[in-house]
Amino acid sequence: MATHSIKTSWRENNIFDTDLDGHKVTIDLGEDQGGNNAGPRPKKLMLVAATGCSGLDVVEMVRKMRIDLKGFDIRIDAEMSDEHPKVYTSMKVVYEFTGDNLPVEKLERACKLSFDKYCGVLALYKSAVPVTYEVVIHN
User: Fold this and answer.
1) For the chain, what is the mean pLDDT?
2) φ, ψ dihedrals at 125, nearest 5°
């Protein structure tokens, strides 16, 4: 079993820095929350992790299927609770493809495989909250 370990260090005020695979990631709060807006918010980074994880899966499958995409975006719309601890209560992943004569069935299959089988981040989130997905194709 693999182990991942990271260390996040407090810099000042509400700013934290992490060295992540040789890349500096800074986390902060918005100015309206007492921060300096020096970096993204932690909960939104959870959504980035999910879109990145699933996106990497889908791109690899699309490449193997020899599908020529002009564009590919992933969006997550996440609902958050009003009470503390403020947590995501549901998520919807939207896969959006752009291209000419795209094979709808193959793209839907790639998204389904990532969503149901390969993306470990989404698997973890699905164990905690309802997560759905949608495939949108723009020809």
Assistant:
1) 97
2) -65, -40
